[in-house]
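re: that chain from earlier
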Amino acid sequence: MDIKTKMKIHTPVKNVIEAIVDPSKILHFWFSSSSDRWEQGKTITLQYKEYSTMDIPIPIISIIENQKIVYTWGEGENQTEVSLSLIQEEEGITVLEVVESGFRDDDPQLIQKLLDQKEGWVYMITCLKAYLENGVHTLRGSLIH
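^ sequence. v structure.
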């Protein structure tokens, strides 16, 4: 089972990609820290200090320049694959589509996990949009669980 979330961001594709892969930028809208620049074949360590989350390792499976980032996260049966696809809809407007796949149909917590992840992706893209379009960097880490 997959979940899909997408939104328009009024900035060029290269700016959206750079915000995600650059550790000095990602902390303005998503994680509180990223161990390194995202590159294919690397395993990046992410942290959410606000939520007392320990290190989150994410192996970067592939990066297609200005088009797509694919990585996995989670462990064992809970591992999923995330695909961030970027489409330049028109000059200066990017559609970011997030697809997270690999959820187990037989997981008794499936519905709650899907809802939680969907909420998280909508929130992340909203924070990214606010950061890139308006310089807002105070939304990250504000969602209360």
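The two ends are 24 Å apart (CA to CA).
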